[in-house]
Amino acid sequence: MSDRPAKDKLFDAFASVAKVLGSGRRAEIVDVLAQGERPVDEIAEEIGQSIANTSQHLQQLLRAGLVRTRREGTRIHYRLSGTAVTRLWVAVREVAAEHVAELDELAEAYLGDRAALDSLTRAELTNRMAAGDVVVLDVRPEREFRSGHIPGAVSVPIGELAGRIKDLPHGRIIVAYCRGQYCVFADDAVRTLREQGMPAARLEEGYPEWAEAGLPVEDGAPRKSGAPG
Amino acid sequence: MSDRPAKDKLFDAFASVAKVLGSGRRAEIVDVLAQGERPVDEIAEEIGQSIANTSQHLQQLLRAGLVRTRREGTRIHYRLSGTAVTRLWVAVREVAAEHVAELDELAEAYLGDRAALDSLTRAELTNRMAAGDVVVLDVRPEREFRSGHIPGAVSVPIGELAGRIKDLPHGRIIVAYCRGQYCVFADDAVRTLREQGMPAARLEEGYPEWAEAGLPVEDGAPRKSGAPG
DNA sequence: GTGATATTCAAGTATTCACTTGAATACAAC
DNA sequence: GTTGTATTCAAGTGAATACTTGAATATCAC
């Protein structure tokens, strides 16, 4: 009754999208690119693989249509090909969080114990931003901040945080955010700030989810450090 | 700085979810189970594979946490483990539709030319249902209808449609729906009805998307054929 | 043009995967 | 208990995959 070979091919095409996300290294690449575009060598460093291997993973993502490229001189910048890809990546993590038995252990092994860390949802953060009683801290690498961030956020990459704590405004709660729920930067930031006696919490999710939810974003260079608006 | 082995394992765990969807046959299984639970032999028949092979695919889906089982006598029924899995499957198809170059051709090869077929969005259908000027026709196999359908829909499996056209009410547009955007049943139904001079259109998407969107659903046996409410 | 750098390609290897076939298990009917 | 049926398991094969190494390509600076 139904056209079996044609149906198989159609579903193989759907599966090709999932298949390309079915490698931990390519998943890391998508996670990185969800923060904004990056050249090959930086991606390789980010995922801890050789450049040749990273390039081949990127070719696969390209063939599957999940990423696009842009040439700039000798460098080739990769980026996700659209917001549907971000949604797909979020959906994968959701299913994993709900249904993969060992995920909690693995996440704890990587992230450490989060029990002591406060976290805010996006809605809570927008409320508090409206009330004006928070400082929003973007602790991702500065180039990710430049390609897009929460409006009014201060960029202090996690590596520089310890040395710049004194520049941060006092008297308001500091809410740190980073790449997402499974990113260590914001956790590290909250721990560092707490050790210095500053009230701090993390945004539960990260920048890609914020942008994907249609909340306002801003891009460009960070202001000179000091108290923001 | 970051714990590479732990990070790799965490992302491997995310990837394991995508990987298991990265086979056309397993994708078909998920598509079938999105309509409701099914025993192994029916799934095997639905995807056109041997029972042994289907069983192994199901084991993989089970290990990855995407499906659950229920024993009933000697038969084992598989079902999706939650709505997050449906969302993931929808996300995969969206990315494929947007970014996989050959998908249009493959879909047309399987579905045939759709240019002449009217289709309604979910919102359009709910409006027309409220206005009372449509007959909603569920052309999936009856057991899928029983495990959940659009309220007020009439169940006429596609294979029986030709013989039951005379039982359908006249004077109202007939809107057929089935498993989803890439399912042929509703297309076939619209063509069959049109040939008989009845005004017909299809719902753009299928039952799983309807249910996932939080729209009302109903379950149970179909009424005896004849005009519904 | 030459040299330097970023990226891709190609070949090789160990591993994993999909499917087949045939046997083993688990429950139901008797 | 035996028989029948639904499902799973195990072994085998050919294809695909991830990563490595080393060479090829493309652009820029000069």
If you had to describe this structure to a student in words, what would you say it looks like?
The structure is a homodimer of 229-residue chains. With 229 residues, chain A is an alpha/beta fold. Chain A folds into two domains: 85 residues, Orthogonal Bundle (Arc Repressor Mutant, subunit A), CATH 1.10.10.10; 100 residues, Oxidized Rhodanese, domain 1. Chain A is built from eleven helices and eight strands. In chain A, the strands form two sheets. In chain A, strands 4-8-7-5-6 form a five-stranded parallel beta sheet. Chain A has a three-stranded antiparallel beta sheet with strand order 1-3-2. In chain A, strand 5, helix 8 and strand 6 form a beta-alpha-beta unit. In chain A, helix 3 packs across helix 4. The longest helix of chain A has 17 residues. The C terminus of chain A is likely disordered. At the A-B interface, helix 1, helix 2, helix 5 and helix 6 of A face helix 1, helix 2, helix 5 and helix 6 of B. Chain A binds a DNA duplex (30 and 30 nucleotides) through helix 4.
Q: Report how far the terminal alpha carbons of chain A are from each other.
A: 66 Å
Number of spatially distinct domains of chain A? 2
Count of beta strands of chain A: 8
Shape type of chain A: globular
Q: Give the SSE order of chain A as H and E letters.
A: HHEHHEEHHEHEHEHEHEH
Mean pLDDT of chain A: 90
Q: CATH fold name of the largest domain in chain A, please?
A: Oxidized Rhodanese, domain 1
CATH class categorisation of the largest domain in chain A: Alpha Beta
What would you say the CATH architecture of the largest domain in chain A is? 3-Layer(aba) Sandwich
For the largest beta-sheet of chain A, the strand count, sense and barrel status come to:
5 strands, parallel
Order of strands, main sheet of chain A, comes to: 4-8-7-5-6
Oligomer: homodimer
Beta-strand percent range of chain A: 5-15%
